[in-house]
Amino acid sequence: MLNSSNFIKLSLDEMTIKLGTLEKQKEMMKIWIRGEEAQLYRVSNFYIFKSPERRVAYLSLFSEGKESDDTYVGKRILFTFNLKEVDYFSEGVVSYDEVHETLVVELDKEFYRSEKRTNERLLTYPHHQVYVYFKVQDEKDESNVIELKREEDKLYLDYKQRQKKELKEKLKEKVSDIEDLVGFRVLDISRSGVAFLVGEDEGKYFSDRAKYSFYVLFDGDLFVVKGAKLVYKVDYVGGKEGKKRFKVGLTFAPVDNLTHYVTELLKEGVETDSIKREFEDFIDD
Predict the structure, then answer these.
(1) 122-254 has which fold?
(2) Do 230 and 203 contact (CB within 8 A), yes or no?
(3) CATH 2.30.110.10 region(s) of the chain?
(4) Which pLDDT score is estimated for 90?
(5) CB-based burial label for 254 (10 Å; 0-12, 13-18, 19+)
(6) Which residues belong to CATH 2.40.10.220 in the chain?
(7) Which of 128-137, 176-185, 226-235, 242-251 has the highest mean pLDDT?
(8) What whole-number distance in Å separates Cα of residue 181 and Cα of residue 221?
(9) Could you give the percent of the chain with pLDDT greater than 70?
(10) Helices (runs of H) and strands (runs of E) counted in the chain
């Protein structure tokens, strides 16, 4: 959880370039009324009105979905957006531009920055189809990168029984020899880590003395991870009675395309609102 020391105050002058970037790149931002769910809007314009009496900044927003603009017109909202792995927060009052059919947010003069948590995790089960696949080897690997070893075909046969046909077909499009791979369903994933469940037989292949290379199949997209290390292997409570299972957590150096993919999903995940509540609590103090 964040605390007040994680929110760093910024002035409007310090934010001008970043707000201009929102307009230029037509970035997404989350807006919400205190205590309610957030909705996604895209920035269409940023401008500053200057007069002898005051200087006011505005953001124009439009929705690509079915959000009701009427929900926010005349209301004070909170909002957040992300640039270069950093979250920014502020407040504003909403009006409606009938000519351009956009929401217009009159921005507060104070913004807040919160460094992006590198361990922020995306819960992938059951809403996403995410699997990790390790190569099964018959002979001892002489390198320092350890892959799973086949033990009298038992692990291999178990794997074949578990895999769904459609997932194997997706993987076949990406990897030439899928028959040498064993897969596990991912529970959650971050920019530099992944957690998944394994059975008792597979659990002995994961130790803190090894490094691991594997594929990540994420909703049909394939990513390659190398040099991962074990963070934990703990008993998992739940599932079928009498079947011992472990929850395995691996950490790895961020992979550019996978990092971007996970980051975008975290940015778009309006259902994960813990950081919204933290900002609400912060501005109430």
Answers:
(1) Thrombin, subunit H (2.40.10)
(2) no
(3) 4-116
(4) 97
(5) middle
(6) 122-254
(7) 226-235
(8) 17
(9) 75
(10) 6, 15
Tokens of 142: 């002489």
Q: Give domain 4-116's CATH architecture.
A: Roll (2.30)
The residue among 283, 273, 278 whose CA lies nearest residue 40 is: 273
72's CB contacts (< 8 A; 6+ apart) are 31, 33, 94, 103
The reported pTM is: 0.51
- The reported pLDDT for the residue numbered 74 is 96
How wide is the angle at C-alpha 20 spanned by C-alphas 17 and 25, nearest 5°?
Answer: 125
Residue 212 is inside which H or E element, if any? strand 211-218
Average pLDDT, the chain: 81
Torsion angle defined by CA atoms of residues 218, 158, 237 and 234, in that order, rounded to the nearest 10 degrees: -70
DSSP state, 180? G
Distance CA 107, CA 25 (A): 19
pLDDT tens column, 103-126 = 999 999 999 998 655 557 788 887
Q: What is the pLDDT of residues 23-59, one digit of tens each?
A: 999 999 999 999 888 899 999 999 999 988 889 999 9
Distance CA 244, CA 237 (A): 8
**Cα–Cα distance measured from residue 215 to residue 112, given in angstroms and rounded to the nearest whole number:** 38
3-state secondary structure at position 215: strand
Percent of the chain, pLDDT > 90?
Answer: 39
- Predicted confidence at residue 7, as pLDDT, reads 85
Please, is 135 exposed, middle or buried when counting C-beta atoms within 10 Å of its C-beta (0-12, 13-18, 19+)? Answer: middle
